[in-house]
Amino acid sequence: MLLIFGLRSKDTIIGSRLGRCEVCGATAAQTLVRRTTRFSLFFIPLFPVRAARHFVTCTNCGRARGAAREELVAA
């Protein structure tokens, strides 16, 4: 019997805002991304194995950092 299982992460863009990047210093769009990780069986995602994580990504340099609670409420 063949059993195919694993973990799959999915990124969802929640919103976008204009801000200054901490790394490159450019004023560019910052996208708020929500990442969920689910256990999958036969390529079907079944249940989450980790709480959702939120990131802010700079569109200029591509750096991602964890989002603070204030940023989540503002989006």
List keywords for this structure.
single chain
**Strand content of the residues, in percent?**
over 45%
Q: How far apart are the termini? A: 47 Å
Q: What's the assembly state of these chains?
A: single chain
The value of Rg in angstroms is: 16 Å
Helix-strand topology string: EEEEH
What is the number of domains? 1
Q: How many separate helices?
A: 1
Structural class: mainly beta
Q: Per the principal axes of the C-alpha atoms, what is the gross shape? A: elongated
Q: pLDDT average, as an integer? A: 89
Percentage of residues assigned to helices: under 10%
- The main sheet orders its strands as 1-2-3-4
Low-confidence stretches: none
The total strand number stands at 4
Main sheet record: 4 strands, antiparallel
Protein name: Zinc-ribbon family protein
Pfam families: Zn_ribbon_15
Domain Zinc-ribbon: 20-65
Q: How would you briefly describe this protein structure?
A:
By secondary structure, this protein is mainly beta. It is built from 1 helix and 4 strands.
Q: Can you give a write-up of this model?
A:
This protein is mostly beta strands and 75 residues long. It has one domain (5-74). It is 8% helix and 65% strand. It is built from 1 helix and 4 strands. The chain has one helix at 69-74; strands spanning 5-20, 27-41, 44-58, 64-66. The chain has a 4-stranded antiparallel sheet with strand order 1-2-3-4, with no helix packed on it. A hairpin with a 5-residue loop joins β3 (44-58) and β4 (64-66). The chain starts with a strand and ends with a helix. The model has no long low-confidence stretch (mean pLDDT 89). InterPro entries: Zinc_ribbon_15. It comes from Paractinoplanes atraurantiacus.
